[in-house]
Amino acid sequence: MAIALKFPVRLGTKIGLKPNSLAARLIAAAAVWTLLGLVVGGFLLSHVFSDSVQANFDARLKFDLDGMIAAAEPDAQGQVSLRGRFADPRFERAYSGWYWQITPLGPKGPVVGDTQISRSLFDQTIKITDEEHSGNLTIGHGAGPDGQSVRFISQRVEFPISATPTPNDVRAFNFLVAGNVTEVQTEIARFNGTLIWSFAVLGLGLILGVFLQVRVGLVPLKRVSEALARIRDGKARRLDGKFPAEIEPLASELNSLIEHSAEVVGRARTHVSNLAHFLKTPLTVLASEASAQPGPLADAVSRQVVTMRRQVDHYLARARAAGALDVLGNRTPVKPVLDDLARVLKRIHAERGLEITVDCPASLAFRGERQDLEEMAGNLIDNACKWAHARVAVSAGRTSGTSFELRVDDDGPGLDPEERQLVGERGERLDESVPGTGLGLAIVRDIAKLYGGSFALDTAPQGGLEAKIVLPATA
Q: What crossing angle do the helices spanning 182-217 and 22-71 adopt, rounded to 10°?
């Protein structure tokens, strides 16, 4: 019993990026995780940078607030002034985005009319929109001049009043420093823009790296596929070459399976041949005995012997072809087989003076065993020689990348469509005067079908019968 090696995909197919391929799955998984990691990492970096910029901006505001408080000089009546001691160009230019103001605090709250402002505020004040307290500081947002959105830090400061008779009399002021948050937003937006395109380039680079890594990593599998294709095409008998440690066990097992399959098929074919030989010997004895003693019984025995011989030849050919299908590495050049058959059959029919021509490219090869090709071509050429008047033409050529067509034409009487059906499909003999068992074309048809090919009869260009079979080809 033969062990068949079946492959679900065409051998030799390149490792591509089909949706169900291993390479596509690896690249897709790596791409998803890469993009996910970059997106999450990008958000975290953006958030950290935003907090850092905001903290730095608040630190600058706190530094300016401390400087302004340190520069404040109170008078005897409890009023304060900076008197040029707090000079910073940012607070001198109108609507510069950097502002300060000092607001006196009365019993009922701020005394807005006495508020001192920086020159940058021109004639306006900071309008508080939200605030929160942090110790003795107040931090929040407000509306500045020219519709600017500002962030501020303010602190309540008390100064003693020495001009009043009441001891320990103090007056409170609210010192406030504000800055335009557009500067912070611009810096964050610039960083985010740089982060996005740099992460995009990094992501593409990582995906390209994964792509190259997968392609290089799967090269050994491609080599295995190509090696199997060479075996299937008959160019090799085993997987040769060095493979990585992960692939080496697979290659060894495949080689062992190929060798075991060939061994099992060889034994099975030997048993079939032996069985056929053992059957033919008793049949020959029966035929001899029947011919030596004429009579009705002898005639019946002779007919049955002929039938049994036909069946033995038929099923022997089918068993041999079926076993050959399961063996990898079968490759038979077509032209040498046809030339040998034409030379032998020309000698057999030498008394008739037949002309047998062969037209076949030297590179054409049959993906199967030589014995099966000889069986099919020999039957077709022999049948054509039996019926031809003077000429038999044999031609072979590729019909596609994976098959070829073998045609045998003769200039004999030919067959009409009904007769071609009887001969080609049922294997019936139409003329008992011609030597043979009449089973040759049926054997050709069965072997061709076993190889996935086809067999057909038609009218030859010379007027006789044209027999053609399509069989698998190899490179």
A: 160
Nearest-angstrom CA–CA distance, 225 and 380: 37
Integer distance in angstroms from the first to the last C-alpha of the chain?
29
Domain ranges of the chain: 72-180, 242-329, 330-475
According to CATH, the topology of domain 330-475 is: Heat Shock Protein 90 (3.30.565)
In 401-462, which ranges are E strands? Answer: 403-410, 454-459
| CA–CA separation, 444 and 437 (whole Å) | 14
Whether residue 246 contacts residue 66, with contact meaning beta carbons closer than 8 Å, is answered with no
Q: Is 24 exposed, middle or buried (0-12, 13-18, 19+ CB in 10 A)?
A: middle
Cβ 68 vs Cβ 177: under 8 Å: yes
**Closest listed residue to residue 102, CA positions, set 79, 75, 122:** 79
Q: Write the pLDDT tens digit of every residue in 12-62.
A: 344 456 666 777 788 888 888 888 999 999 999 999 999 999 999 999 999
pTM value is 0.50
| DSSP codes joined into one string, 118-187 | -GGGTT--PEEEEEEEETTEEEEEEE-GGG-EEEEEEEEEEEE-TTSSSTT-EEEEEEEEEEETHHHHHH
Best CA proximity match to 79, nearest among 175, 156, 167, 159: 159
**Rounded-to-10 torsion of CA 69, 74, 78, 79:** -80
Is beta strand 391-400 parallel, antiparallel or unpaired with respect to 355-359?
A: parallel
Angstrom distances, CA of residue 255 to CA of 248, 328, 368: 11, 11, 19
The structure tokens listed for 277 are 């030989």
**For 270-292, how does the pLDDT look when each residue is reduced to its tens digit (9 = 90+)?**
766 677 667 767 777 777 777 77
The secondary structure of residue 84, as a DSSP letter, is T
Task: Give the CA distances from residue 25 to residues 14, 18, 210, 247, in Å, rounded to whole numbers and listed in that order.
Answer: 16, 9, 12, 19
Angle, helices 296-325 vs 248-292, to 10°: value is 170
- At residue 75, the 3 state secondary structure works out as coil
By three-state DSSP, how is residue 41 classified?
A: helix
